[in-house]
C-alpha cells in the first residue's frame, strides 16, 4: 500500500509538471504576439514551443499508460470490498480527473495559439495578395489544396511579396503541427473520458459517502444544538443557585454582625452600659 501511495503522489506531481508546461507554452505564445519579431527570434520561440510540445506529449502519454496499468491491476484484484481496494480505486479516479484537467488546459492553450497563428497567416497573405478573399485564405489554411494556392500566390506576387508568402508558408506548416497536437490531445481525452465513465461506481460510492456524511453532520448538529441548549440552561441554573447561596450567606453575616453589635454583653449598646447609667 505504501508503494501505491508513493506512486500516486508522484503521479500528481507529474500532473503539476504538465500544468507548468501549459503555463510556459502560454508565456512563449504571448511573447510571439507581443510585437513584430525578427525571423531569428520567432524561430527560437517556435523551437522552444515545439520542445514543450514534445515534453508534454511524452509525459502525458506516460501518465496515461500508468493509469491504464493501475486500472488493470485493480480489475485483476481478487477482493473488491477491502479498504485497500477501495482506496486504490478512489486514487485512480482522482488521478484520471487530474490528468484530464491538465490535458484540457493544454489543449485550450493550443487552440488559442492556433487562432493567433491563423490571424497572422491571413495578414501575411493579404499583404502579398491584396485581392485574396477570406474563402481563399481559409481554404489555404485548412484544405489540402493549400500548397497549390500558396504556389499560385508565389507566381503572381512580386519579389517582395514572395518573401512574405515564404514566411506564410512556414506559418502554415506550424499551424498544421498545432492541429496535429490538438488532435492527439483530443484522442487522449476520449480515452480518459471513457475511463472516467467506467469508474462511475467510484463516483456513486463517493457521492453516497458524501450524502451519508452530510446526514451524519446534520444529525450531529442537532445533537450539538440540544447539548448546547442544555448546557446553557444548566449554566443559568447554576448561576441562580450560586446567587441564592451568596445572598443567604450575606444575610447570615449581616445578622451575626448586628447581633454582636447590639445584643452582646460587651457591646457599647448592650446590657452593661445600661447598668452603669442607672
UniProtKB/TrEMBL annotation:
Localization: Membrane
GO molecular function: SNAP receptor activity; SNARE binding
PROSITE patterns per UniProt: T_SNARE (PS50192)
Superkingdom of origin organism: Eukaryota
Domain T-SNARE coiled-coil homology: residue ranges: 165-227
GO cellular component, one term: SNARE complex
Cited Pfam families: SNARE, Syntaxin
Chief place where the protein resides: membrane
Bilayer-crossing regions: 240-262
GO annotation, biological process: exocytosis; intracellular protein transport; vesicle docking; vesicle fusion
Membrane topology: Single-pass type IV membrane protein
Coiled-coil residue spans: 42-119
UniProtKB keywords: Coiled coil, Membrane, Transmembrane, Transmembrane helix
Entry's family note: Belongs to the syntaxin family.
Protein name: t-SNARE coiled-coil homology domain-containing protein
Species of the source: Vairimorpha ceranae (strain BRL01) (Microsporidian parasite)
Amino acid at each position: 500500500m505504501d508503494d501505491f501511495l508513493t506512486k500516486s503522489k508522484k503521479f500528481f506531481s507529474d500532473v503539476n509538471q504538465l500544468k507548468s508546461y501549459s503555463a510556459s507554452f502560454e508565456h512563449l505564445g504571448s511573447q510571439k504576439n507581443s510585437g513584430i519579431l525578427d525571423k531569428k527570434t520567432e524561430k527560437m520561440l517556435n523551437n522552444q514551443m515545439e520542445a514543450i510540445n514534445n515534453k508534454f506529449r511524452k509525459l502525458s502519454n506516460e501518465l496515461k499508460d500508468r493509469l491504464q496499468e493501475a486500472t488493470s491491476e485493480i480489475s485483476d484484484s481478487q477482493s473488491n470490498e477491502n479498504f485497500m481496494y477501495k482506496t486504490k480505486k478512489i486514487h485512480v479516479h482522482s488521478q484520471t480527473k487530474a490528468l484530464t484537467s491538465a490535458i484540457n488546459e493544454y489543449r485550450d492553450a493550443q487552440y488559442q495559439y492556433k487562432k493567433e497563428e491563423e490571424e497572422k497567416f491571413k495578414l501575411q497573405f493579404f499583404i502579398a495578395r491584396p485581392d485574396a478573399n477570406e474563402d481563399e485564405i481559409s481554404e489555404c489554411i485548412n484544405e489540402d489544396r493549400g500548397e497549390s494556392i500558396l504556389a499560385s500566390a508565389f507566381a503572381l506576387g512580386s519579389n517582395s511579396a514572395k518573401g512574405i508568402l515564404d514566411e506564410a508558408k512556414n506559418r502554415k506548416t506550424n499551424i498544421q503541427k498545432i492541429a496535429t497536437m490538438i488532435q492527439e490531445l483530443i484522442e487522449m481525452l476520449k480515452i480518459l473520458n471513457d475511463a472516467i465513465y467506467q469508474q462511475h461506481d467510484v463516483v456513486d460510492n463517493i457521492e453516497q459517502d458524501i450524502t451519508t456524511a452530510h446526514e451524519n453532520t446534520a444529525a450531529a448538529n442537532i445533537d450539538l444544538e440540544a447539548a448546547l441548549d442544555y448546557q446553557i440552561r444548566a449554566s443559568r441554573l447554576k448561576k441562580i443557585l450560586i446567587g441564592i447561596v451568596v445572598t443567604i450567606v450575606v444575610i447570615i453575616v449581616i445578622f451575626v454582625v448586628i447581633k454582636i453589635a447590639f445584643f452582646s454583653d460587651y457591646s457599647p449598646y448592650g446590657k452593661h452600659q445600661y447598668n452603669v447609667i442607672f
